[in-house]
Amino acid sequence: MNSLGGIRSWPAIWRSTTATMTTAESVRKVPQVLTVAGSDSGAGAGIQADLKVCAARGVYCASVITAVTAQNTKGVQSVHLLPPEFVSEQLKSVLSDFEFDVVKTGMLPSPEIVEVLLQNLSDFPIRALVVDPVMVSTSGHVLAGSSILSIFRERLLPIADIITPNVKEASALLGGVGIETVEEMRSAAKLLHEMGPRFVLVKGGDLPDSSESVDVFFDGKEFHELRSPRITTRNTHGTGCTLASCIAAELAKGSSMLSAVKVAKCFVDNALDYSKDIVIGSGKQGPFDHFFSLKKDPQSSRCSGFNPDDLFLYAVTDSRMNKKWNRSVVDAVKAAIEGGATIVQLREKEAETREFLQEAKSCVDVCRSHGVCLLINDRVDIALACDADGVHVGQSDMPVDLVRSLLGPDKIIGVSCKTPEQAHQAWRDGADYIGSGGVFPTNTKANNRTIGLDGLKEVCEASKLPVVAIGGIGISNAESVMRIDASNLKGVAVVSALFDQECVLTAAKKLHTTLEESKREI
Ligand SMILES: Cc1ncc(COP(=O)(O)OP(=O)(O)O)c(N)n1
Ligand SMILES: Cc1ncsc1CCOP(=O)(O)O
Ligand SMILES: [Mg+2]
User: Annotated Gene Ontology MF terms (predicted)?
Assistant: First the structure.
């Protein structure tokens, strides 16, 4: 946030939160979101949708109600605004008690209610603010009139971390400019960014004549167009609330902004697709099922994205080791995956570009056929040329934000961090995960400072990004790493423990078993 409570570097606040928490051992902090929105009696949108999304994403959600609507699948029949003083009472109640990771706003129906929200946010500084500038219901009912525009523009938007207007809302905020094309959505995102939010997502679901649903994400420097096939269904009531709450939930768990937005878009697409034929209510616009993931085969999802659990057993290749044992990189990668490696990185420091590219293409094929992601160490050019799933960079490699602008929103970016400051920067730059080490001394990487288990823990505590430990890790010490008691430590990355071994398959199987056992014991 800009002016309210100085949450620009929110990982620093996570650090202090963790510090207070560790006074009581075995306390587990649950990611928490506060939604400030209107109630929808039909339960498709508003507070009810927000609660369902957060529950579906594993995040606790408290709710402050700004208005009660009489609403169903046919439309909004009536709206009752809560007195601003009572909205304020609710805000005080929860903000003085909970430690919210993210506050998300939906229907803020009057300038007086926005005013009490601003006052409470200044009394109780929060970590991140997601603003869904709800103005009109999907059925066309005005939920917040033009009287709120100036307080939105002048006071709320400048403190938002992200705003998520649809094209109609973006147009209203910009004084009625026409937005009918993706190019106009980009211009709108840029103008809205000038009003102060850190990120802008202009949702193009309402754009006419498109077989795709295109959303434009702007971070102040780069635009990303997030596209997905349009789903034909009447059950679209609550998509805006669902998207914004899902962004809030993912941020609360520690995602970078772009990653949170991608997961949220994917969540909405999957929910719409799963629910396209259900019939709830007799009106034109039905709700959809937020708990589809409890019921459907996860393999049938329309989109997937980065899964932090894939960092569990991270195989990092080494050209010298595979040459020494007289095997190709592709064979080594295949054996590592068959033994249980859950993600692979090609770290071929000595390879010639042409040869590296050929090997990388073959490894992409092997990894795709096994459903395992393949990342390239350092070389963004090779990653682009072989269509790898992402890149891992260190502190002296290409900066993460530049890698992101070259690879686009869908690729995975990992960054090496030895310190809490580097971990904070990784989140700000939009990395998907952190590689932290060398945890133990290693011969694989020369002149590499060892940070120990304490250094690893500090990095984990400084960030909510998923972390994989690296450096000198093998069967004998993997358990001590996994036991450091950091919920975002997702696994170990190893080079010699897999590739400086006679049989990669056996080594991978043994290490996988050790990791599984230590997970069970935690
Ligand atoms: C998963 C993972 N973590 C850390 C590193 C180290 O990357 P970097 O600091 O860029 O050093 P090099 O690997 O390039 O020598 C990594 N490769 N993977
Ligand atoms: C690439 C890298 N980055 C930090 S330590 C390291 C090497 C890890 O290799 P090993 O698993 O053989 O110790
Ligand atoms: Mg590097």
Answer: ATP binding; hydroxymethylpyrimidine kinase activity; metal ion binding; phosphomethylpyrimidine kinase activity; thiamine-phosphate diphosphorylase activity
